[in-house]
Design a protein that fits this description.
Number of domains: 1
Radius of gyration: 19 Å
Order of helices and strands: EEHH
Largest sheet: 2 strands, antiparallel
Number of strands: 2
Shape: flat
Structural class: alpha+beta
Strand order of the largest sheet: 1-2
Oligomer: single chain
């Protein structure tokens, strides 16, 4: 693992750096779709997202989006 920094923004008064650790190197084989999905889920978890395994249908996902929007905007949607 290599630690790297790169400049995000710079002015006369400040500099903003992004620090990250390289966790993988390009392999010599292709990933399967399931391996790619697992890696994406792990990357999102590492960024603070929560994995909700029971969101397996479109209606469950839409219900979750509704709850999240209500929470984010501090509102309650009316039915209909």
């Amino acid at each position: 693992m290599t630690q790297q920094t790169r400049t995000i923004a710079e002015s006369n008064n400040f500099i903003v750096l992004d620090k990250y650790v390289t966790e993988w190197e390009a392999g010599d084989r292709y990933q399967s779709e399931s391996e790619l999905e697992r890696e994406l889920i792990q990357d999102l978890r590492n960024q603070g997202y929560e994995f909700v395994p029971d969101l397996t249908s479109q209606s469950a996902m839409l219900a979750n989006v509704r709850v999240q929007l209500q929470t984010l905007n501090q509102v309650v949607f009316n039915e209909g």
